[in-house]
Amino acid sequence: MSNLDRAAVPSVCGGRGFVVAEPVRELLSPRRVRLGESTEVRRLLPNLGRRMVGAWAFVDHYGPDDIADEPGMQVPPHPHMGLQTVSWLHEGEVLHRDSTGSLQTIRPRELGLMTSGRAISHSEESPASHARFLHGAQLWVALPDAHRHTDPRFEHHAALPTATAPGLTATVVLGSLDGSVSPGTTYTPLVGADLSLSDGADVRIPLEPDFEYAVLSMSGETHVDGVPLLPGSMLYLGCGRTELPLRAESDAGLMLLGGEPFEEELVMWWNFIGRTQDDITQAREDWMSGSRFGDVKGYDGGRLDAPELPPVPLKPRGRVH
C-alpha cells in the first residue's frame, strides 16, 4: 500500500536512543488519510511522537468499510524501496500486482509479503467482484542496511501457524511467537501476530523482554495491560516485558507488533526508506524517469507520480520527534 499523501513529509526514525527500555502504556491516536477513491485509513505509524516499533515503521488500519456499491481499494502502481510491505485482511480481498510479475489475490488471514529491496513497484485493488466489507491493516518493515539492496520478491502464505489458549487464537503473521514461526522472510528479530479473542477471554501472551511492543486494536473492546483499547487505536508498550495481560469485553481482534529496537537511523519519505537525502532524491528521480522500479503489467490505469521533495534537508535523527 502506498502513502498517497501529496504533501508527503519526511519521517526520521531508527536508532536505540529513543527506545523506552521499560514497560510503558503510551496510547497512540490515529491520523485519518484518504487512500484512493473510497478508502480512508487510520495511520498509527509514523505517529507524532513514535516512529517505529522494532523494525515496524508504518501501520495503517482501514475498515470495516461497506464497499458493496463502491470500487473499494484502488491504489495505482507506485514504488517502494528499502522495506517490506505486509498485507493483512480480516474481511474482503485485495488483488496485488507488482513489477516482478506477481499477480495474487490476498484473502483474510493470508499473508501477502512484498520485499522491495533496492526497488519494486506494485498496485493494489479490490477485484471487480468483491465481498461487501473491506477490513484490514497494511504495515511496513524497515530493511537493515545489509539487506536493503536485496532483490525484490513477493511471497504469499495462505497457511500460517497458530498458538492457542482458552478464548484466544494467535496467528503468527511474521516472525515467531511462543515457539510458532511464520514462513514469511524476515531480516531482523521481530513478531507480528493476529490475536482473536472471544468475549470474556482473560489471557497472558508470552513476550521477549529484549523486544519493544505495541498492540493495534482491529475490532471489539479489549483491555491491554489494563488499558481500554478501541478499534483503530494502538498502545505502545516499551521493552522489559515477559508477558502481556489481555482481557476481552466482546469478541475482539488485535495485532501484536514487536521486535528488537532498530539500531540504524533512517530517512522515510513517501514510499521510500533510505539512509540519506541522496538515497531519497535518487529514488524519486528514478521513479519519475521510469527507470529502476520496473512496470506493473495489467493494471487498468496510470501510475502515481511522486510528490515534490520538501524544501528542507532530509536528515536521519532518531525514532521520535
Automatic annotation (TrEMBL):
Comment on bound cofactor: Binds 1 Fe cation per subunit.
PANTHER family in the record: PIRIN, PIRIN-RELATED
Chain intervals for the UniProt region annotation (Disordered): 302-321
Q: What Pfam families would the database entry show?
A: Pirin, Pirin_C
Which GO MF terms are attached to this record? metal ion binding
**Domain Pirin C-terminal positions:** 193-292
Q: Where does Fe cation bind?
A: H78, H80, H122, E124
**What is the required cofactor set for this protein?**
Fe cation
Using the record for this protein, list the coiled-coil segments as residue ranges, or answer none. none
InterPro entries hit by this protein: Pirin, Pirin_C_dom, Pirin_N_dom, RmlC-like_jellyroll, RmlC_Cupin_sf
Q: Which family does it belong to?
A: Belongs to the pirin family.
What is this protein called in UniProt?
Pirin family protein
Tell me where in this chain the Pirin N-terminal domain is found. 41-141
Which keywords does UniProt give here? Answer: Iron, Metal-binding
CDD domains listed in its UniProt record: cupin_pirin_C (cd02247)
Does the entry feature the keyword Iron, yes or no?
yes
